[in-house]
Design goal:
Elements: H1 9-19, H2 26-41, E1 44-48, H3 55-66, E2 70-74, H4 77-99, E3 105-107, H5 117-122, H6 144-156, H7 173-177, H8 199-209, E4 212-216, H9 217-225, E5 236-239, H10 245-252, E6 255-257, H11 259-270, H12 275-293, E7 298-299, H13 305-327, H14 336-359, E8 364-371, E9 375-382, H15 386-392, E10 398-403, H16 413-418, E11 434-438, H17 445-448, E12 449-453, H18 467-480, E13 484-487, H19 491-504, E14 509-511, H20 517-526, E15 531-534, H21 536-541, E16 551-554, H22 565-576, H23 581-598, E17 609-613, H24 617-620, H25 624-629, E18 635-637, H26 640-658
Helix pairs in contact: 1-3, 1-4, 2-3, 3-4, 9-10, 11-12, 11-14, 12-13, 13-14, 18-26, 22-23
Amino acid sequence: MTPSSSPSLADLLHAAVTAVGGTERPGQVTMAEAVAEAVDGGDHLLVQAGTGTGKSLGYLVPALAHGERVVVATATLALQRQLVERDLPRTVDALQPLLRRRPQYAMLKGRSNYLCLHRLHEGVPQEEEEGLFDPFEAAAPTSKLGKDLLRLRDWSDETETGDRDDLTPGVSDKAWSQVSVTSRECLGASKCAYGAECFAEAARERAKLADVVVTNHALLAIDAIEGAPVLPSHEVLIVDEAHELVSRVTGVATGELTPGQVNRAVRRAAKLVDEKAADGLQTAAEGFERLMELALPGRLEELPEDLEYALAALRDAARTVITCIGNTRDKSVQDEDAVRKQALAAVESIHTVAERIVEGSEYDVVWYERHDRFGAYLRVAPLTVSGLLREKLFAERSVVLTSATLKLGGDFNGVGASLGLAPEGTGGADVPQWKGVDVGSPFDYPKQGILYVARHLSQPGREGSRTDMLDELAELVEAAGGRTLGLFSSMRAAQAAAEALRGRLDTPILLQGEETLGELIRNFAADARTCLFGTLSLWQGVDVPGPSCQLVVMDRVPFPRPDDPLMSARQKAVEEAGGNGFMSVAATHAALLMAQGAGRLVRASGDRGVVAVLDPRLATARYGSFLRASMPDFWYTTDRNQVRRSLAAIDAAAKAEEK
């Protein structure tokens, strides 16, 4: 096709939007034009596209028209499914006649997301001490684990993908771990009896042939960090839900050591190495476990001498075991390759984390965590991932990052800095140049929503019940006739609020943790009188348009906990470099969550309602204007009586429509 006969971007977008049954919006057109300009010029782009813009088509259409391979990375399973099951099939069908070619697309996830046929048929290499029977042996298993495994075996004969997310209903993590492997545990297709049928290998092959590869932030991070490419080479990277990227990359780059993990590695290695090597690892494990029994939560700015000694012993013993496993073969061990691979993966993980902590780095943060049920953890995470992202993500491809919340406090520079980007329009040869575009929203926020700040309430403290806040919450919920999504800064606060309101109101109160999240959201959407209270995943994961969600309440500004080791270390580092650590870290963290939380209110053009923040600091503190500027442009008030009248009117209108 000659350039003169190529279809225009406007024609392509119109065809795609028509195919999905949508309507073109100015913001979507602006976004598509900006993405096309960026990918054609090999440039980097940050796009804020509000809810309802139709941003997936805003990037898919110009990406497909570009003709080079594109990787699209998202944070949530819901968006991956939407892209692969709805948006891409319809868009490709619509564009094929205009492009005169049919772009191919594929989904690619980490190896542990796919059923492993070797594990399924040969069983899991188990530690003898655990004494687990083979759940597949029982003709009629009675335990939930046994039933899940039997269903997985039946499903393996039907599934074309082996993708865990295609199994409905799902199974427990414990059941899935029996039939999946990590990349470190995998035997490799050439050494595995089931390599030719491997679901993970098939997914990678489909990805190599695809024009568009849909993946997740975690796999993108692994591809960038570990140096061993797991994604096919690509010229364009599009990161959707980009506000999540830094936390997902941080998660992948975080190492962890627990006594349980170390003891499992000891048991797995014991049957494969000589007694001296096994005893050395056992002794080191016991020393580490004794220290962890006494560990108190908190950051370790310097390694205590006893911990440094214990970790060095663990590292050295693990290195010896790794060498032994590489040099020995034991024909008496059934399915010895799988046993060796699993043991090696477990011991290598111990060695890597122990060595990283002992060697120390000014760019790492080390801390203890303690859980009531699981005991103490030792963790190490990067102080920042900005340099890593700048070097690995932006160096060799055009990158487009998009989300409904990328402008914090009115500009892109805060999010840009977390990604390793200098302020827009600045930077030298080593700093990627980029452009930020806000394409707006199709919603009329000042007319559709109210931002109410309860200025009269007492300021929240770290602990203790806020009786005035609970009184205010009860009055607001009553005025709204239910219809409330309660977003709380902690699970304890959500539980206390649910308990208090269940005792005061007839309104049904659903609480996160009492059912699966999917079931809670379905029940919340089904009955407009119902309220749903919860914590972090609700701030970002609820999409309930219509009369079921007309009041969104935030109990307080969601600053990170003062004792959060990683956040406090990042804040301190900014201050030592001469910056404002509070605004760069704590306020930016809160602004992102508040923008996401407020975005739960207006999900469709007919939605009306109130976002109520029960923390006076949003109105009175100096940083309040920064936080408010990060949220949708709702009509702002601190008048409690006005808000009650507005909620009552919205409730009455919704009831009239329901009739």
